[in-house]
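Input.
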Amino acid sequence: MFKNSVYGTVVALVLAAPASAVTLTECDRTTHISHGGETAHVDLGMGRVMWRDWWSQEGTATSFTLVDCAPGVALSFRTQEENMGNAMPFDRTEKALAVIKRHENGARAFATFDRMAADLDGIARNIEIITLDAEPCACAALYPEARGEKVEFMLG
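Output.
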């Protein structure tokens, strides 16, 4: 009898578990029909991820987002744009990524989003730090245990 109840419990747990977790590869996707999306997701370690956001309708733009998965704090910044309204075109992607690399290669205690944002000032545009209510795809793929109270990411 005990053996059957343990077996039943194990089966119930397996059936209740998600069929498959999202993978980092699945995070590369179009998020705005044919003209915007996310790509190049990277695990920066210690619960932090980064990806490139792209846009290509009438003009082009490249932005990056870094997220500290557990608290859901995100740093986003634009490194390239052309023909996006009245702003002058620019491409400072390499310089901006060098700033991020320098911070990420140092001690994590000093690689704060506030410090990164300050160092990106004058290089990138539209620099902002926000707290997310929803779990990003890369966090779901790499650090699902860090979701906490955030809305669970679902592909769809």
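Residues 21-146 form one domain.
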